[in-house]
Design brief:
The chain contains nine helices and twelve strands. By secondary structure, it is an alpha/beta fold.
Length: 311
């Protein structure tokens, strides 16, 4: 088969993979394989204060336990700081950056990387002494793109606001690192959770400033708890039953979790697939991948999997 592009899964090593991670990984892998693309894994470990030693290795073993196979070596973002500095210097020469002294408290925003609606406080220079972040000067006007699953998107970049490229502690932001590394690795298909849909206009704007190609984007339903809250490490989501942190692998439990994940991805696996060998689950999933079933779906409740204990 001729390879057409590259897809990727990029976890942060801040805790074990959970059911939401499995959904994102499986969706991105199936999308890549169905389109004749390579599928790679990247470890996004630039947020060094939150990285748990040994976690990345455990995550990779977990993926192997669940039958994932990736192409080529795993890239760790912690080896790429020079590339991020070079991109930042390019943007500074283009006068697309400015120093910002605003804290999270000042902006009442969820985080430096997600300062939606930044009011431009420091566009003319820092407004107070102390440590500063580096922000990207967002373009004016609207940005439109077609999402594989969520359809046409139209974002007002000035409403979204200027976003952080380098944090106040000197570390590169997620937005900068993901754009630089997707280009470096030739990623052409970015399939991930719908919680990152809001970041996509920023990333496309940044790609334009850096002269980088725009990947195809597809945002999968975000897995939620029964109460509608995002399933995440921060909410102490349980790790996958067959994680890579020790203990025997229950092959039936893995097949059951993979089959439940297919259901959460709006696919229709037959009931007996849950007890089939792992390789047969993957064979069925690829042969019967129908991405159109995901159209417009932004959330998927864990209760819809039919069996929360599957994970």
């Amino acid at each position: 088969m001729t390879t057409r592009g590259t897809g990727r899964f990029a976890p942060s090593p801040t805790g074990p993979l959970h059911a939401g991670s499995l959904l994102a990984a499986m969706g991105s892998c199936l999308d890549a394989r169905a389109n004749g693309a390579r599928w790679i894994v990247r470890i996004e470990d630039i947020d060094t204060p939150r990285v748990i030693p040994g976690c990345a290795d455990g995550q990779l073993r977990t993926l192997e336990n669940y039958g994932f196979e990736w192409d080529g070596p795993v890239l760790h973002q912690s080896t790429r700081f020079e590339a991020y500095r070079a991109a930042l210097a390019q943007l500074e020469r283009q006068r697309r950056t400015f120093r910002c002294s605003c804290s999270r408290k000042d902006l009442a925003a969820p985080g430096d990387d997600e300062a939606a609606g930044y009011p431009g406080t420091c566009r003319a220079g820092p407004t107070k002494p102390g440590p500063t972040a580096v922000r990207f000067r967002a373009s004016d006007g609207h940005l439109k793109f077609e999402d594989l699953f969520q359809g046409e998107q139209d974002a007002d970049l000035r409403v979204l606001g200027d976003f952080v490229l380098e944090r106040r502690d000197g570390l590169p932001s997620y937005q900068l690192a993901v754009v630089v590394d997707d280009a470096f690795q030739g990623v052409t298909r970015v399939v991930r959770g719908a919680d990152l849909l809001a970041s996509t206009p920023w990333q496309i704007d940044l790609q334009g400033a850096l002269g980088l190609d725009r990947p195809i984007y597809g945002h999968l339903p975000l897995l939620t708890e029964r109460d509608g809250a995002k399933l995440s490490k921060s909410r102490h989501a349980l790790p996958l039953a067959a994680d890579g942190f020790g203990g025997p692998v229950d092959r039936i439990a893995v097949s059951r979790a993979l089959t439940s994940t297919l259901t959460l991805l709006s696919q229709r696996p037959p009931p007996d697939l849950a007890s089939a060998p792992i390789k047969d689950v993957w064979k069925w999933a690829l042969a019967n991948w129908h991405p159109q079933a995901l159209a417009g779906r932004k959330t998927a409740s864990l209760s819809a999997s039919g069996d929360k204990s599957s994970f």
